[in-house]
Amino acid sequence: MPTLTQTAYWTRRLLKIGAIALVAIIFLRITFKIITTVWQKINPPPPPPPTVSFGKLPLINFPESKNPDLKLTFRLETIQGGLPKFTEVVRVFFIPKEGPNLLGLERADQQAQRLGFEGEPQQISEKIYRWQNQANPPTALDIDINNGNFQMRYAYENDQEVINSKDLPTNQQAAQEAKNFLSSQGLLPADLATGSAEFVYLKFSPPNNLLPVSSLSEADFVRANLFRADLDGLKILPPNPRNSLVSFLFAGVKTLGKRLIEVNYHYYPLERETSATYPLKNIQTAWQEVQGGKIYVANLGQNEKGEIIIRKITLAYFDAEQPQHFLQPIFVFEGDNNFIGFVPAVDPKWTE
To answer: How far apart are the C-alpha atoms of 46 and 43, rounded to whole Å?
Structure first.
């Protein structure tokens, strides 16, 4: 029969062994989790195969080149020292396309009335109608009766008060006034409300030119460009990223009808719940296309000689000015002197 001393001894031994075992188990679990995490980062599971649920996609319809005769040469000088790596698949989103509607003109007339225009419109084209007020100088409103997109413009070139007044809004004020205007018209969707804004300071040059300047104090006007919020971490870019499809030109006067002298609104709603994944084009293939001249020049910048040095390549979505059925990814090539170019990013096996 063990004595009390022996019992106490073995009890202490068992407690000590148990404590060591518990510490060892905890240490092993932590070590296992660390090793598993590191392994998964080094060897991530392959992405699920693309769904390609929309079938073959139509080729992106880029605008016509503004410099079709300019021959461009490209040299790659990125921070990485080469081409970056991209994910293998990306989502494509459906864009409902509205066609001719028997009620289109009636709805456009109601829209014109909300914007302060009355009277009968003038038909400019099959789908564009123009309203004009009786002021001097006048303000003209062009509406696409198929989708409600519009341009409103005051003939400020003939108004010295507008040109000479310098009480321009700050960037924050311009963005807020622009969003308030859209909200009052029921035209402020969530991705514009939460998207970014960029600003351009402009100097009037007769007879009707606006030249960019570097500061608000030099400017006669301020343009506020509103962009959609990023989607899946990618920017949504218009044909020229320097000019958004939803923009506002502000003057330095507070007079009603003269403060906001130009509005451009081209917006196509996305069905974010209706998407499919598609394989991306190999970035080396995209770079070969660039070198072969198969690139849409979104902004030539100050590169009149045609010698382009590419510094950065990213992935984005293309937001077209004309209606297209899908929001598709593009490779964005950015270079010295404000050069920006686009190349379609979907694997050509899935475009037609």
So the answer is: 9
pLDDT(335) > 70: yes
Mean residue pLDDT of the chain comes to: 90
pLDDT of 7 reads 67
Contact in structure between 179 and 173 (CB atoms under 8 Å) = no
- Determine which helix (DSSP H) or strand (DSSP E) holds 29, and give its type and residue range: helix 4-42
Q: Exposed, middle or buried by CB within 10 Å (0-12, 13-18, 19+), for 224?
A: buried
Q: What pLDDT is attached to residue 67? A: 77
Q: How many Å apart are CA 53 and CA 21, to the nearest integer?
A: 54
Residue 119's alpha-carbon distances to 50, 104, 132, 138, 262, in angstroms, are: 53, 17, 8, 14, 21
More confident residue, 272 or 326: 326
For residue range 96-153, list pLDDT tens digits in order. Answer: 887 777 888 999 999 999 999 999 999 999 999 999 998 888 999 999 999 999 999 9
The DSSP call for residue 319 is: -
Nearest CA among 101, 190, 188, 108 for reference residue 148: 108
Long-range contacts made by residues 200-204, C-beta under 8 angstroms, separation at least 24? 200/225, 200/242, 202/249, 204/157, 204/163
Q: Which amino acid is at 289?
A: E
Measured distance CA(5)–CA(179) in Å, rounded: 84
State both tokens at 82.
């080469």
The secondary structure of 249-309 as a DSSP string is EE-B--STTTSEEEEEE-----EEEEEEEEEBPPHHHHHHHHHTT--EEEE--S-TT-EEE
- Mean pLDDT lowest among 20-24, 106-110, 152-156, 317-321: 20-24
Region of 52 (left: φ > 0; alpha: ψ -120 to 50; beta: rest) is: left
Burial letters for 127-138: b for 16+ Cβ neighbours within 10 Å, e otherwise?
Answer: bbbbbebeeeee
Place of tokens 């198929």: 146
Burial of 287 (0-12, 13-18, 19+ CB in 10 A): buried
Residues 189-210: what's their mean pLDDT?
91
